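Q: Could you predict the 3D structure of GTP cyclohydrolase 1 type 2 homolog?
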Amino acid sequence: MKIRSFTQQLDQFAPKQLAEPGDPIGLQIGDLDAQFTRVLVTLDVRPEVVAEAIEKHCELIVAHHPVMFHSARNLDLSVPQNHLYAEIIKHNMTVYAAHSNLDAAENGMNDWLAEKIGLNKPQRLLDGYVDEHGQQFGMGRIGTLEKPMSIKQLAEKLKIDFNLQGLRLIAQNPQKVISRVAVLGGDGGKYFNQALAKGAEVFVTGDVYYHTGHDMLAAGLATIDPGHNIEKICIPKLANLFRSWKDIQNNHIQVIESKVNTDPFTFI
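A: Sure. Here are the predicted structure tokens for GTP cyclohydrolase 1 type 2 homolog:
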């Protein structure tokens, strides 16, 4: 099966038009017209992930986070990132990324996170691309918990549900009982005012900056920062999606879920 046929189906699920301006989605490295028999699904493309793909004879890597966020100034292989690119090319692998387009897609990343948190009837948090039918897409979701709980109880629940060593809580009163929660996977701190405007009592997002945390406190919005790595929920979700496609089944394509922990942080 050609990689191009596969990525066309992925683009239908998470259309490129949904991506944020300048986001380097889609083909990262490789040849869309190459044939493949095995695809590795991952959150990040790091050296250990590439080694895993090589070991498992995968010709294709599908990632949420692009491997090439910034253009290479040279191909000096003593630079770890450049060496990573060289390993991918050396082993004739293709890397394809679905990033902010997957974040904004219907039944995509933020719907998976909202489901994991337990939000009822989640709605779009941010306004993004509008298609030819007038349907609007956007990143993030906001909804209501099945039953009210304190901010601290929700934080403790998320720590367990996402199997976290720790998380950061920003709240004036952790014992306050809340029910309306917004979530935005990845680095979403700059959107806290939009979460407030939609009536969120708690905002779940990663990588909150120090000064943004102060602004959140001053605005009265409690925030739970479980980190960026909770987006690894995409690995089983995407893998199961791919396995459901008839072309994958008919061509006996093996879909492999990466087992590499790409979280750079350790809590001590």
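Q: Anything worth pointing out?
A: DSSP finds ten helices and eleven strands in the chain.
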